[in-house]
Amino acid sequence: MTELLYLDDSYLAAFDAIVTAVEPDGVVLLDRSAFYPTGGGQPHDLGALVAGSQRLPVLNVTKRGADTLHQIDPACGLPQVGAPIRGEIDWERRYTLMRMHSALHVLCGVVFREFGALVTGGNMGVDKARMDFELEDLSAERVAHIEAVANAVIASGRPIRWRSLPRDEAFQIPDLIRTKINLLPAHITEVRVVEIEGLDLQADGGTHVHNTREIGGLQVVGTRSKGRINKRLEIALTPAQGSVAEGDV
Description:
The chain is an alpha+beta fold. It has two domains: 87 residues, Elongation Factor Tu (Ef-tu), domain 3, CATH 2.40.30; 146 residues, Threonyl-tRNA Synthetase, Chain A, domain 2 (2-Layer Sandwich). The protein is 18% helix and 37% strand. It is built from three helices and 16 strands. A seven-stranded antiparallel beta sheet has the order 6-5-9-2-3-8-7. Strands 10-11-16-15 form a four-stranded antiparallel beta sheet, covered by helices on one side. Strand 5 and strand 6 form a beta hairpin. Helix 1 packs across helix 2. The protein is elongated and about 60 Å long. The chain starts with a strand and ends in an 11-residue tail after the last strand. The relative contact order is 0.17.
C-alpha cells in the first residue's frame, strides 16, 4: 500500500521513500509517493526516481489496487528493494495540471450555479481541457457569459481547500457529486472533497492550487454538440501573474 502524499500537499515536488518492490518490466513500488497516477481525468505526473548516482526517469504512473506503480525504463537500471530513494516531480508539468484542474472546477461551479447543469464527462492535459455538460443550448452568447463569469471568479482570489470526510458525512453535502453518474466506488469509506470558497464543493481526488488567482484565467477555445442535451466546452489557460516555485508553499 502506497501512502499518497499528494492528497494532503499538492505542492510537494520532492520526497523521500523506500523501495518496496521492483518488477522486471521496470515497475517500481514505494512506501510513499507524491507522484499522481492517471485517474479522474487527470494525467499522471512525470519526473525521476533518484538513488545515489542513479537517476531513473519516471515514464508513467498508474494505480493497482492500493499501490502506485512508477514505470521506469529497465534498461536504465533498477533500484534495490529496501533502498532509500528520492522522488522528484516535474514541477512545471504538475503545476500546470494543478491550475488546469482548478480551472475545470471553476467552470463546473459556474455552469452549475448559472444553469444547474451536471457534468457528463471530462478530461484534461497540459495544453487544454474539456468538460461536457447536460445542456441543450450552448449559444455564442452563453459561452461568452460562462467565460466572463469564470474569469471574474478566478480574479476574485477565492481560496481552494481540500479535506477528507467519512462517506456518510460527505454525502450529506448537497450536490457533492456533480457528475451525471456517481463514479465513486462503494468501497470508499472516506471521501476527499475540494472546495472553491463560495462557488463549488465536490468529491475529487486530484491536485489543485490554493487560490483561484494562481489559475491565471481560462479561455473557451472550442465547443461541440455531443447530443441534444450534451454539450462540450474546451478550455485553455491564460497566463497567471506569477507561478509558484518549488518549496514556496
